[in-house]
Amino acid sequence: MFADIHSHIIPAADDGAVDEKTAANMLRMASANGTSHIVATPHFIVGSVENPSILVHEKCVELQSLADREGIDITIHPGAEVFIGPDIPELFDKGVINTLNDSSYILLELPMSGIPIYTEEILYDLQLKGLTPIIAHPERNSEILKNPDILASMVSRGILAQINSGSVTGLYGRKIRKVAMKLIKMGLIHFVASDAHTCGRRSPSLETAAAIVHRKFGSDTAECLFYKNGMAILENGIVPCKV
Fold first, then answer.
1. 14, 67, 77, 126: least buried by Cβ within 10 Å?
2. Cβ–Cβ contacts within 10 Å for residue 30, how many?
């Protein structure tokens, strides 16, 4: 079984599922490929794509009802993929931004092109509030691609990291796949998630990526990255596996 902490399955919320039919098909595909829990993490980008907490919760209830009616055996949880910015700590205090399943874990996205100068300050501020930031797909960040020690420094301060299943399978190219595998080997990755947007190229299927991680790093690592650590977040517990 898999616990997927990063997906864009809420219809018409962002660049993910375009409508309810697509969302249902994505959920059906995820369940058929072994995902038992999935977190809906629509983008939250200040001034651009803002999906407030109350709306995401409502949409997740609707999606769960849809899945139940369709006989899709999957549990949907609320969340957000929050684009890092100076306003994030304040918006969290106001209850605007979702954490993952209302836990103390928050999924943060860095720009692909680099790392903003305020990043360390924002991460520290969130940690002071009792949150554990999870960096979404660091393997796709241009600076971390060149220097994985940047991520190592973050992890040493209690920050966690999630790579995309597509990075493991080579969807984003050979270079990103190589870095993704290196980050796992370095013990810097705590979750593999789908970051699903469609039923096609960026699908919610985790099966192929899990098989690759199992073959290269063993069953314990695969279970941690694809299930145990994700379930710990959903239960707001301590992430058990530091691979």
1. 14
2. 28
